[in-house]
Amino acid sequence: MARYLFIGRYTAEGAKGLLREGGSGRLDAARQVVESVGGSLESLYWGFGKDDFYAIGDLPSHAAAAAISLTLAGSGSSSVRSIPLMTAEDIDAATKLSPSFRPPGA
Predict the structure, then answer these.
(1) pTM recorded for the entire structure
(2) Alpha-carbon distance 59 to 64, whole Å?
(3) What is the DSSP code string of 22-84?
(4) Who has the most CB within 10 Å: 27, 35, 70, 106?
(5) Quick check: is 102 in a domain?
(6) Domain holding 43: CATH number?
(7) What is the band of 106 on the pLDDT scale with cuts at 50, 70, 90?
């Protein structure tokens, strides 16, 4: 499974829902959406400022991560960014590849 970071902001309606349900209610909902696509939720945190929440989950595919992002955005309650998280081993494998590249204008 691959690990993903979801960073999101609540809309006004989403913030109202958080005020009604509290953090525990949203934690349960986050766990449910991740598990519904075959993944597991590692953590969910809230902040304030530009971003409202940060979640990390293990998901079986990019499609599963995209489905979660689309579902959250489609609900109208939040906007979300999905970021694949890479391990040292992933980066080691990337450094062993030799892509052929021509810079623009070269």
Answers:
(1) 0.88
(2) 6
(3) HHHHHHHHHHHHHHHTT-EEEEEEE--SS--EEEEEEES-HHHHHHHHHHHHHHTSEEEEEEE
(4) 27
(5) no
(6) 3.30.70.1060
(7) confident
